[in-house]
From TrEMBL:
InterPro entries: D-mannonate_dehydratase-like (IPR034589), DgoD-like (IPR034593), Enolase-like_C_sf (IPR036849), Enolase-like_N (IPR029017), Enolase_C-like (IPR029065), Mandel_Rmase/mucon_lact_enz_CS (IPR018110), Mandelate_racemase_C (IPR013342), Mandelate_racemase_N_dom (IPR013341). Residues 129-267 form the Mandelate racemase/muconate lactonizing enzyme C-terminal domain. It holds the Pfam family MR_MLE_C. It comes from the Bacteria. This is D-galactonate dehydratase family protein. Gene3D superfamilies: Enolase-like C-terminal domain, Enolase-like, N-terminal domain.
Length: 412
């Protein structure tokens, strides 16, 4: 099992994806996801220029050693580009090990701790009727847990609202509701924290009134609040019993969460922009969160996210792995294998990929009655179709950003 070849595949079926394919001298192949939304080429270059040359000739079976070599052996540690590249190598090696053993990766991680993974989807609307329709449609698709994002009166367009989107067919510009938009420059959105804080509790009150007390509901604040604003939001949402409030404050400042925690019992989720266990060290040790939001893709792969989750388990903190459409089917498969195996699984985010993406990546997971399962194929269970991937060249794309009414750039 010596690594013979490692290729980086950049394809853009419904959006950009960076995939690493490793081939061994005995003909086994493994796939890893290295997609960094809106900054894809940085990881392509890091992989091609700096990592691939180090892989050729290595023993593909030595997953831990390869991880330590790529992490500790480079002087410059951490950061999203490095950790996405290491993640892709790690995933591909787990894929190969599974294929060599004839077992799905979750079996190599200790076997299933549950029958399936509860997953949540993204409902959204500019107003209540649109939001209710979106929630109903998600329930019809089988979702048993729902993230609720809403338009705010007075704001033109807000990130994460599906109906703000215009389709590629109509405009020539792709703009889905969790986009990096294909285009020359990032799209500008507007923001008003006061209006948001006044509006959101009224929306959750209406949603609870319509859909009852039992449906697990989640909400993402996308890092836009100060600690006192986040504390106020958490407290005002307590009557509506959220599953979690996500990214209430910018992730760089763990101390902010102490203040939030001191004022609200609304569960907190954070970490989709974190890359290592060190980013989590303080907030896990001080029990400042309830859910770890990292994706396998952005946190150094299965090997490293497993380490984060084992640490989190000491403090009754669970997984809530990031799963928007910018995590490729390979990254989603890795999340499902890890989520099935660890004891402290919480919930899995699951946004369906488009038909073109599903044609490029042949997958073996199942989605039944609100639960995901990675399937029983050896390895991760995903194969890439080279003819399909070759049809969709990379298109530069940016996430949007937002400004306040006076023109100030606001937190993401
Ligand atoms: C979002 C993401 O899924 C989520 O919770 O915060 O869609 C995020 O905006 C994108 O992944 C950014 O790449
Ligand atoms: Mg989020």
């Amino acid at each position: 099992m010596i690594i013979d070849r490692a290729e980086v595949i950049l394809t853009s079926p419904d959006r950009n994806f960076v995939t690493l394919r490793i081939t061994t001298d005995d003909g086994l192949t493994g796939l890893g996801d290295a997609t960094l939304n809106g900054r894809e080429l940085a990881v392509v270059s890091y992989l091609e220029e700096h990592v691939v040359p180090l892989l050729i000739g290595r023993d593909a079976a030595r997953i831990e050693d390869t991880w330590q070599f790529l992490y500790r052996g480079a002087y410059w540690r951490r950061g999203p580009v490095t950790m996405a590249a290491i993640a892709a190598v790690d995933m591909a090696l787990w894929d190969i090990k599974g294929k060599a053993a004839g077992m799905p990766v979750y079996q190599l991680l200790g076997g299933a701790s549950r029958d399936g993974l509860l997953a949540y989807g993204h409902a959204s609307g500019r107003d209540l009727p649109e939001l209710f329709d979106s929630i109903r449609s998600h329930l019809e698709q089988g979702y048993r847990a729902i993230r609720v994002q809403t338009g705010v009166p007075g704001l033109r367009s807000i990130y994460g609202i599906a109906s703000n989107a215009t389709s590629e067919e109509n405009t020539g510009v792709r703009y889905d509701h969790e986009p990096a938009q294909r285009g020359a420059l990032p799209h500008q959105e507007d923001w008003d924290t006061g209006a948001y804080l006044r509006h959101v509790p009224t929306v959750f009150e209406a949603v609870r009134g319509e859909f009852g007390p039992e449906l697990p509901l989640l909400h993402d604040a996308h890092h836009r609040l100060t600690p006192t604003q986040a504390a106020r939001l958490g407290r005002s949402l307590e009557p509506f019993d959220l599953f979690w409030l996500e990214d209430c404050t910018p992730a760089e400042n763990p101390e902010a969460l102490r203040l939030v925690r001191g004022h609200t019992t609304t569960p907190l989720a954070i970490g989709e922009v974190f890359n290592t266990v060190w980013d989590y060290q303080q907030i896990i040790r001080e029990q400042l969160i309830d859910y770890v939001r990292s994706a396998v893709t952005h946190t150094g792969g299965i090997t490293h996210l497993r380490r984060v989750l084992d640490y989190a388990a000491l403090y009754q903190i669970k997984s809530g792995m990031h799963g928007p459409t910018d995590i490729s089917p390979v990254g989603m498969a890795a999340a499902m294998h890890l989520g099935l195996a660890v004891h402290n699984f919480g919930i899995q985010e699951y946004m369906k990929h488009g038909a073109r993406t599903d044609a490029v990546f042949q997958q073996s997971f199942t989605w039944r009655d609100g639960y995901l399962h990675p399937g029983e194929k050896p390895g991760l269970g995903v194969e890439l179709d080279p003819d399909e991937s070759g049809k969709y060249p990379y298109v530069r794309a940016y996430l949007p950003y937002n400004r306040l009414a006076d023109g100030t750039v606001h937190d993401w």
